[in-house]
């Protein structure tokens, strides 16, 4: 036993000594790394033709990101001189995503567009990519603003929230009555922005609408949304509408409405994928699903990646072929794809995500 | 000449390296080699931890959540203005507490490891969610980020040095100490081990403590490398680490397993993952290839064991 302890203590001491060396030497090594990187980049630029644009989703193999993959690949075929490399982790694990990006840096791609699982965790690797002369952008979910050259957003949060509110009023067929708001989680920043915008819309344009309680969290789970909606229907028999943000919430709410047979009395509107919501749209338990087209988002990401690599920046109101008119925010690098898309009983079957 | 399981695996590792060096563009670039050296340690440490547990015939399904929880401990210290050393100590303390809990239930109460760690996996995940509310904790000091991103003597990544160090310590502990011998004995036959005067519960307790220590070191490297911690930190390593340990020749029923085998297995995983990414393979295909190699090597191991046994019985028959 004594030997073991001695060994451990010796190891600890060694670690201490190592740690001491590192702090002093890291500065010189960094610059060395850069020099090497610069050299290898030069080689590849001469050897290969066309632009390599890498698009990194949060994970591969789910309908949403499959749809954006086909969009990105389509853009690769449409645009001249662009090789699209759509690759991501098979699990939504931040560390797996970082490795994918590191390998892309080794591959010397020209542009990396990432939808970060955890914006903070991709910060160091994106910094490294930038040091190696790679153009860095984000799509779907924003990364650190200072770091990216371009940020592609699907919708304007304000517009999206207000749009959902209008759709709900439209579905209810009246501008008066009680409604409830379900959300995925209380701390999700984008969901909160949408709800705030929706509340503003109600306050300003539909004073007859009464929101019965604070926004109700559903833990991003359909089952929880279903339970909470059942409770709501019991506690507020006059409830006219439910606004559900986060993709599982509208499904759970619609499920509850369907089970109680209240399709005509209670309207449900929320953000959901069309394939998931089709069975509920069918019988009117879900009135409208509002989201965006992830395929277009993938297409736009690649198109903008090409512009970025060629030294152009997108302009406000610019027409992007295959996508439509885009909006550029005041900071000059946040691009909004366009208005939200509505999925209804009539068109839900046309989409494959 | 007779080669051990581990040497064959070492040759396979060398073979994959050479093959990928030939076919994957940029595989040998200094940039890529360094990036692989940065990627390997965090997974390697977890695989070593898993190996030590599997040698006893157990499994630790909570290992990545132990790592995440200890990462949360370090993150909380760092973001509240404490220095690097206290943060590391707290990280190790958090992990050891988790390991002690696992060890206690498994060794003193005697519940089977897969059930206990399945339970603690959910338990630790719940604790992390309660602390972080599902958000990530980020923004550590530059000094801390050197652990995962810095170079030792300006040449090799510090994290790989730490990994090599712990691989050597683990190898020495397992093969040169009486605790190590008891671990192998317990893995082959726990009843016989008990009757030969070994305190089984103490051996087991130390196994789970040591595994969680390795998880803590991995967590420190990960948090420093990613500059943040979240509930799912390293969760993709859980089953991969079992795969690496088994590919490395560790017997899933316990009793056999070598550090060097696991290290080779981790290297094979690393080469293939990186090489196929460079070749532009789809990520799901990378998983398919790794799965196929795993099955292939395991089948080879199984048959070579079987032939050996057949040959031995024949020899015995002849002698008789």
Automatic annotation (TrEMBL), chain A:
<keyword id="KW-0762">Sugar transport</keyword>
<comment type="similarity">
    <text>Belongs to the bacterial solute-binding protein 2 family.</text>
</comment>
<feature type="region of interest" description="Disordered">
    <location>
        <begin position="26"/>
        <end position="47"/>
    </location>
</feature>
<dbReference type="InterPro" id="IPR025997">
    <property type="entry name" value="SBP_2_dom"/>
</dbReference>
<feature type="domain" description="Periplasmic binding protein">
    <location>
        <begin position="53"/>
        <end position="312"/>
    </location>
</feature>
<dbReference type="GO" id="GO:0030246">
    <property type="term" value="F:carbohydrate binding"/>
</dbReference>
<dbReference type="InterPro" id="IPR028082">
    <property type="entry name" value="Peripla_BP_I"/>
</dbReference>
<dbReference type="Pfam" id="PF13407">
    <property type="entry name" value="Peripla_BP_4"/>
</dbReference>
<dbReference type="GO" id="GO:0030288">
    <property type="term" value="C:outer membrane-bounded periplasmic space"/>
</dbReference>
<protein>
    <submittedName>
        <fullName>Simple sugar transport system substrate-binding protein/rhamnose transport system substrate-binding protein</fullName>
    </submittedName>
</protein>
<keyword id="KW-0813">Transport</keyword>
<dbReference type="InterPro" id="IPR050555">
    <property type="entry name" value="Bact_Solute-Bind_Prot2"/>
</dbReference>
From TrEMBL, chain B:
<keyword id="KW-1133">Transmembrane helix</keyword>
<keyword id="KW-1003">Cell membrane</keyword>
<feature type="transmembrane region" description="Helical">
    <location>
        <begin position="84"/>
        <end position="106"/>
    </location>
</feature>
<feature type="transmembrane region" description="Helical">
    <location>
        <begin position="285"/>
        <end position="304"/>
    </location>
</feature>
<keyword id="KW-0813">Transport</keyword>
<keyword id="KW-0762">Sugar transport</keyword>
<keyword id="KW-0997">Cell inner membrane</keyword>
<feature type="transmembrane region" description="Helical">
    <location>
        <begin position="7"/>
        <end position="27"/>
    </location>
</feature>
<keyword id="KW-0472">Membrane</keyword>
<feature type="transmembrane region" description="Helical">
    <location>
        <begin position="113"/>
        <end position="131"/>
    </location>
</feature>
<dbReference type="GO" id="GO:0005886">
    <property type="term" value="C:plasma membrane"/>
</dbReference>
<dbReference type="Pfam" id="PF02653">
    <property type="entry name" value="BPD_transp_2"/>
</dbReference>
<dbReference type="InterPro" id="IPR001851">
    <property type="entry name" value="ABC_transp_permease"/>
</dbReference>
<feature type="transmembrane region" description="Helical">
    <location>
        <begin position="207"/>
        <end position="226"/>
    </location>
</feature>
<dbReference type="GO" id="GO:0022857">
    <property type="term" value="F:transmembrane transporter activity"/>
</dbReference>
<keyword id="KW-0812">Transmembrane</keyword>
<protein>
    <submittedName>
        <fullName>Simple sugar transport system permease protein/ribose transport system permease protein</fullName>
    </submittedName>
</protein>
<feature type="transmembrane region" description="Helical">
    <location>
        <begin position="151"/>
        <end position="174"/>
    </location>
</feature>
